[in-house]
Amino acid sequence: MPVQSTNPDYDAHIEEWRMMDDALEGEGAIKRSPRNLPKPSGMVEAEKLDGQGNAYLYRNYTDRAQYEHWVRDSLRSMMGLVSRLIPEVKLPSGLKGLEDNATADGFGLTQLFLRIVRQAISHGRVPLVVNIDEAGQPYFATYAVRNAINWDTADQGGRQDLVLSVFREFRRKEQDRYSHECETVYREFYMDGAVCRTGVRNEAGELIEDDRPLGTVDGSNNLVRGLDYIPVIYCGSTDNSPDVDEIPLLTMARAALKSYQLSADYFTALHQTSHPQPWVSGLDESVELSVTGPSAAWDLGRSGSCGYLEFQGAGIEAVRKAMEDQKNAALESGAKVLDVSGTESGEARKTRQNDQHATLHSIVITAAAAIEQALRYAAEWTGYNPDECAFTVKPDFVVTEADAQQILAQIQLWQNGLVAKKDVRANLRRTSLIAADRTDEMIDDELASESPIGGDNE
Asked: What are the CB-based long-range contacts (under 8 Å, 24+) for 302-307?
């Protein structure tokens, strides 16, 4: 089979991932794809008669449709909650640099964590690859879910482990520096006996980078100990197995797409209701009518008559109600808290928030576990103790509110030497009065410049 072969689960879910890509990109992407808005039968028949001349009918139909950005707004809302979380990282001394430089484009572990959570929320799957650069330093790369085209598992020492991972990549062709033309290549990882190997092939299946084993090398770049596993982790929304997980925002995306399709009919009906079609009959041959409108007067002659073909719009209210039902379906998906004008009780809102937090809870846990496993792979690959690696995140999304008087009281207690400064810092962070990632020194600078009466009281 060719290198472009895909896993059956990939084929089963690719349309859902495409839908999520369009939903997140927004109205422009939704309207560029005709599959998101089927043509009404009348427009199909009109284009059979004159495809080019009647193409404007579907174009106008699409232009009037309105796509609601519930998915993108929901993702931003959920990431706002996640961004409050502060990862706790433990690394061997030789890998401390990963805290600030862990990704292929030079960002740290916290940024990697946020990227993984974001993609797990939006697509339910994040392929994470561990690699070593030319200087012998480990780094991590993530792939878009649509580019992780193939994978397989098999029995390895009594356990079901990965034996194949194939990724599609896009490399810029060597042209002038202003060109963005790319060629498609395929990076593969596979088990050859007890050693993992990797290579890069073109679309014809020809190797364009040497097929080589992965593992620890000596000063002459000779393999000392090969990796007995594929350094790839498929982080999901519920666990980190290679199987495809559910997409947390899929229900909302489907509701948004259906609302978009209904809106095309709704706004077309409104347009036709407000723009009735005039008709005339019985005109003498000498009568010519070329202008219509409220400022034009018609001379119909002796036997002429006229009127309007008006769109009654009996179904407009039904379509509007169907659009409202889709909005409610999106609300009930629990992915985002939207205001419902006066009809939702506080208990109902709390329930939906708890649903949202439960979804985020599992995603945060699996994302942190994936990064910790990747750190362990990197440590083992580079000769460090993997047991010294830890990456944990406490998924606490409940923010305790505090008013100005409470905060002022805390500071006064500290100034009087009755409360330790570290407790004031903790309270300020917990109540979100200040950003949770601000250092102790930054907080101290913003507190009173003089020490409390009882001393610094750290």
From this structure: 304/280, 305/280, 305/281, 306/278, 306/279, 306/280, 306/281, 307/278, 307/279
Whether the Cβ atoms of residue 151 and residue 174 lie closer than 8 Å to each other: no
Structure tokens at 22: 């369009």
Element of type H or E holding 188: strand 182-192
What are 267-324's pLDDT values in tens digits? 888 887 777 777 888 887 776 766 666 667 777 777 888 887 766 666 777 888 888 8
Is a pLDDT exceeding 60 seen at residue 344? no
For 446, phi then psi, to 5°, come to -90, -10
Residue 216, Ramachandran bin (φ over 0: left; ψ between -120 and 50: alpha; else beta): beta
- CA-CA distance, 205 to 311, in Å (whole number)? 59
DSSP three-state, residue 303? coil
Got the DSSP string for 31-81?
HH-GGGSPPPHHHHHHHHH-TTTTHHHHHHHHHH-----HHHHHHHHHHHH
Q: Please choose, from the candidates 75, 354, 71, 361, the residue with its C-alpha nearest in 3D space to the C-alpha of residue 237.
A: 361
Cα distance between residue 169 and residue 22, in whole Å: 20
**What digits encode the pLDDT tens for the residues 74-115?**
888 888 888 889 999 999 999 999 999 999 899 999 999 999
**Dist CA 406 CA 422 (whole Å):** 17
Q: Which of 235, 236, 238, 234 is nearest to 358 (CA)?
A: 238
Are 256 and 326 in contact, with CB atoms under 8 Å apart? Answer: yes
How does pLDDT run across 6-64, given as a tens digit for each residue? 999 999 999 999 999 999 999 999 999 889 999 999 899 998 988 888 899 989 999 99
Of the candidates 57, 105, 115, which has an alpha carbon nearest to the alpha carbon of residue 83? 115
Ramachandran angles phi, psi of 286, nearest 5°:
-80, -10
Q: What is the pTM of this model?
A: 0.75
